[in-house]
Amino acid sequence: MRQLSSWLGRLSVVVLTVLVASACSASGRVAGAGQTLVQVSERDFHIAVTPNHVPAGDVLVVVRNHGPDTHELIMVGSRSRLPLRLDGLTVNEGALSAVTVASLDGAGPGRVRQVRVHLAPGRYELFCNMAGHFMAGMHAELVVG
Amino acid sequence: MPKRPEFRPFVSRGRRAIAAILVTFAVFSALTLTLSIWTTKGSQHRATVIEVAARQRTLAERYVKEVLLARTGAQVDPNNTASILARSADALLVGGTAPSVYGDDDETKLTAASGGIVRDQLKQERRLVADLTATGSALLANRSVIGVPLTAHEHLSITNPVGRLRVLAALTSNVSLNAARTIASADDQNVTHLIVVQAVLGALGLFTSLLLGWALIVATRRQTAHFRSLVTSSTDLVLVLGADGCRYVSQSVSTMVGPAEAEMLGYGFEAFVHSDDRSALRTASTHGGPREIVFRMRNQSGEWRQLEAHVTDLREDKSVHGVVLNARDVTERIELEEQLTHQAFHDNLTGLANRALFRDRLDQALARAERSDRLLAVLLIDLDGFKQVNDSLGHDAGDHLLQEVARRFSSIVRSSDTVARFGGDEFALLLEDVTEHEAVGLTQRLLDRLAAPVTIAGRPVALGASVGVVLHSGSGHSEELVRDADVAMYAAKDAGRGRYEIFCPEMAKDLGELLGIEHELRLGLQNGEFSLHYQPEIDLETATIVGAEALLRWHSPTRGLVPPARFIPIAETTGLIQPLGEFVLRQACAQAADWRRGGLVPESFVTWVNVSAKQLGGSGLHTIVQRTLEETGLPPSALGLEVTETSVVEQGVAGDRARAELKLLHEQGVRIAIDDFGTGFSSLGQLRHFPIDMIKVDSSFVQGAMHDPKDAAITANLVNLAHALGLVAIAEGIESPGQLTSLQSFGCDLGQGYLFARPMPAEQLTDLLAKGAPHLAPDEAVA
Fold first, then answer.
1. B746 is in which domain, residue-wise?
2. Shortest alpha-carbon distance between residue A89 and chain B (Å)
3. Over the stretch B529-552, which tens digit does the pLDDT of each residue have?
4. Could you tell me if B267 and B129 lie in one domain?
5. Is the pTM here over 0.80, yes or no?
6. Do residues B242 and B327 share a domain?
7. CA-to-CA distance for B425 and B398, rounded, in angstroms?
8. Do B320 and B240 lie in a common domain?
9. Strand A122-127 and strand A71-77: pairing?
10. What's the CATH number where B695 sits?
11. pLDDT, tens digit, for every residue of B207-245?
């Protein structure tokens, strides 16, 4: 039994090392084949984008929800001010459909999703549009070019 | 050591397998049911939790409305809603009672939330509720909302108090809904897991049951095969008889009696069964009994075989529905039984009734005579001169003679009379319903018929008989009648043989004499009336005592000194010769051992003991001798046994046994001498084959040697013969110096007789030996 647990311990060390190594390489600017990696970290009620300035072109956006609540991610070409719906609590996505480059539905905590986008130079706004979440601070900017 | 698999045909493996299947089903069903109940209960609880969690959403919205209404002065109680919100959020997270909402639902008991995500969401909900109600309270109290500390990481950019309140309510509502969803999805997962687990359990149970079922089938098949092979390979015949005749017959029928199995089925078997036995079989098949029956079946060669069957009634047994017969061929056994029964009541040699059957018939005749008052006669017949025929012509001739006599007797008597042979040359006749005249007439005819010569071994032999006749009427005992006939027969013998005597009570006195001696012999053995005398044996060349012959003496307190010739035959006929012989052997060996220990006799000294044909013919003489030698400490070479010529050359079983005994004794080292040599009828050439050391020339030749040239020639030849065979010759009954001289001239080795010494008590011979005078000159002995 003791042998088994020590064996499991060694195995977990090896697995962790591999994971950390792959995470380090993933956080690099290039995810391979001319694709830029952008990591988006969501939590109640904040969005962090790393890096927040990337070259134009193909971008792989990896979104991780740290919870505890469920969160969406919508990415639109930036305007000075995003229009709200009449309830005053959510962004009017309908009015932004022309500039929307990505839209991920709500996902529970712990979920990691990714989306490939081709980004032209400009400013992009990333936000969660669940009721009140945008108003509570869940939005961030990505600069392309 | 590997354990051998045991054959246990009656162990109910099948029952065990069925039990195992049932247990498997029970265990798996119980497991599945428990899981279902547990999961259902969990689901019920989660439904309640979901209800409460979902209610929070409504309550948050209601709270905002109530705050706004309260600001307009309406009669609402937002604080109560705030309290319900807070308590419910608390109960959802840590367990407890979620309060009732008036007009909506009742109090709900909750257990603490489990699962990391749900707990995180509920904690967040609790923080948001706190932020919401704090903001609401500030708004109601007209305090600045901006200053209300926020605990759930909200970064509210909106400054409008109502807007802030609505955002917080939306956040609360959202997280409540998502917590409810998380719980619901966990429940779904649980249900999915349950379905998987139940499917696995069901499959496992089914697989195990199938496995056990298969094992059950295999075990049952094996058992069936086992029993089938037991039944089919059994040499016993197994028959199952039902209402429609024979329903099953084992394969052994063809090897046992012949017919093929198919021929036996239905009522076909009856064709092979003896017609007298068919009803017994039918009875057995209809009544299931009796337990044992014997019936006959014809085999292929047309012989009737006797079958003994054990009947088992299995008509009520659903798997048999018939009467089972386990039959064995007992033909040989029954024939043997019949033969034994015949032998038990018949004389082997002549086929006549034996003593037992005669006694039985006599008892029946006596019972009839008692009722009818008629006369019956018992004749006891002893052949005269039979022994001489036997001795001179051999036992085969004697047997032929007895068979001829039996034929002659049977031809004379009526069919209702019984002729029996009692053994030896003794016959008996039972005549029923006769007059004295008829009985006497028949007796006379018997004697006449016997007198006609019979040709045996090429010689005409005429026989006579002594017949004792008893005439009897009324009650009586068969034993007495036979004894009376015996007495009458002896009277006839005494009266000169070849005649008959009718029993009269005076004759009984003589019987008393005969019976008296036997009785006294027995008493004499017990009372120590027997003793041994020893007659020295002399080396004729050196005149040294080289041995002694032990001779039995009986001092009867009533009869005085009884000569051996008078009591030895009685001892032989009564079987007393065995204990008497053992007595002689023991005494002689003990005495000889004493002499040796005392240094009175040389190493080569031999003590001789007479052994009768009866002793030799009875088994085990060599073991008695060996035991006696061991007990007395006498070496085998110091003991000699004297046997008669006839006992050694006798034909048949007794003779074979005697020769075998002698061989064993000789191998032990015991010396053997032929006594009374020359008087028998044996072929001298046979002597070569016998294990003997010495021959004793009969005194009749010795005593005639001086005067009768024939006796002299015989004696000389006997001595020469002994030497030619490498044997020692000893002359018996030397009484005169002249005889001694003759014997010495013939080269005879040893001598014995009154000339040297008479038989003397042991003490006397001891004294003689102790005198240190090993030389026993004839003159001294006579003196």
1. 520-549+576-782
2. 6
3. 999 999 999 999 888 899 999 999
4. no
5. no
6. yes
7. 9
8. yes
9. antiparallel
10. 3.20.20.450
11. 888 888 888 888 888 888 877 777 776 778 888 888 788
